[in-house]
Write a sequence for this structure.
DNA sequence: ATAATTGATCGTAATATTACGATATAATTG
DNA sequence: CAATTATATCGTAATATTACGATCAATTAT
C-alpha cells in the first residue's frame, strides 16, 4: 500500500478493502469459481485448469485462506481446498451492506445530475 | 500484476477483478461512502475529510472515474464528483451474480466438510 | 492584470503484488 | 529405503500501487 495509512480508516473500511483485494485478481476469481463448481477441489487440478505455475497458485490459495474464504484439509499427499461457506455468506453480507449503503441514495440527492 | 496474464482469464473474470480492485483500498471505499452521503461532493472537501494529500486523493478519484464508478462535472473552479448511479447498479449486479454463482453450492456438495 | 484557489498531472520514493524456478517437506508407491 | 507425487515455501525479478511534493492549467477574486 505504499506508505501504509490503514490507521486513517475505519475497521469496516479496511475490512471491506481487504475482502475486495481478495477478489482483485482474475486468478483468484477463477479459483473461487472453480472451487464452487467442482467436487474434486485440489491444488493439482487447479494447476491444470489455470495455466499458472504451481507455486503461483499455491500463493493465491494462501491469500484466500488467510482471509478465511477457503479452507484446506489434508488428504493423504494432497490437500482438499474448498470454500468456507459460512464465512462466504458473511463476506457476501459485507459487500451487500456496502452496496445498499451506496444505492440508498436517490438520484435527486446528487449534486451533479 | 507482475508479468501480466490477463489473457489467461475470461473477460468476465477480469472485469470482476478490476471492479474489486476499485474497492480494494480503504481510501476509495471512504470516498465512495462520502460521495453517497454528501450533497457537496467536491474534491476539496474530501481532502479535509480523509487526511491524505490532495494529489493522492485526485489519483484515487481518477481510478474510480476510469472504472466509471464516479463522474465529475466542472463547476467553476472546482469539480463536482458524484456516483454514477446507473453504472453503480450494473456493478452491484456484477458482484451479486458472482456471489450467487458461489453460494448456489449446497454444503453437501463440497469435498472437505 | 495579478493573486488566490482548485484540481490535475509529473516525477519519484517506498512498498506491495505477481510470477516463476528451485528447493523443502510430507505422504505414497514400488 | 528409494522414488514419486503433491503442496508449501524461499528467493528474486518484473511490475503495480500508494503517497507525496512540486508544478501546471483553469477559474475566480481583488
Amino acid at each position: 500500500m505504499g506508505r501504509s495509512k490503514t490507521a486513517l480508516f475505519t475497521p469496516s473500511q479496511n475490512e471491506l478493502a481487504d475482502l475486495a483485494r481478495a477478489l482483485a485478481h482474475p486468478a483468484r476469481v477463477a479459483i473461487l469459481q472453480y472451487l464452487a463448481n467442482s467436487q474434486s477441489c485440489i491444488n493439482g487440478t487447479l494447476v491444470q485448469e489455470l495455466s499458472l505455475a504451481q507455486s503461483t497458485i499455491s500463493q493465491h490459495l494462501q491469500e484466500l485462506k488467510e482471509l478465511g474464504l477457503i479452507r484446506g484439509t489434508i488428504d493423504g499427499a494432497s490437500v482438499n481446498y474448498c470454500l468456507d461457506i459460512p464465512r462466504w455468506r458473511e463476506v457476501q453480507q459485507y459487500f451487500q451492506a456496502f452496496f445498499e449503503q451506496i444505492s440508498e441514495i436517490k438520484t435527486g440527492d446528487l449534486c451533479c445530475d
Notes: Helices of chain A lie at 11-22, 26-37, 43-49, 54-66, 85-103. Residues 1-4, 25, 27, 52-56, 59-60, 74, 76-78 of chain A lie near DNA strand C (CB under 10 Å from a C1'). Chain A has one domain: 11-100. The first helix of chain A runs from residue 11 to 22.
